[in-house]
Amino acid sequence: MAKVDAITARAKFSELVNRAAYGQERVVLTRHGKPIAAVVSLADLEALERLEDDRDAGLGAAALKEWQSEGQPTIPWSTVKAESGL
Q: Going by DSSP bridges, is the β-strand pair 27-31/34-39 parallel, antiparallel, or unpaired?
């Protein structure tokens, strides 16, 4: 993974975008030697978002299971929509 300081990144922005988009290279931007951001391909971003969605779905399922194991009632989505005017 390449590291580029922010000042250089500003001057070479188009090149960095092309490296990420077409070369599938991840470029970390730094300021004073510390990582501050990254330029990644859209495919990498979409993969990360899918991982986050999967994690969130798993957390939601676990929370529902815990709620139900405690004997808490659930409300059907159709009822929630109707009562909320959705």
A: antiparallel
* DSSP classification of residue 30: E
The token pair that represents 7 in the structure block: 């000042």
Q: Is the dihedral of CA 56, 62, 66, 69 positive or negative?
A: positive
- Rounded to whole angstroms, the Cα distance separating 17 from 15 reads 5
Q: What angle do CA 36, 42, 45 make, to 5 degrees?
A: 55
For position 47, what pLDDT does the model report? 93
Q: Is residue 29 within 8 Å of 4, Cβ to Cβ? A: yes
The reported pLDDT for the residue numbered 72 is 84
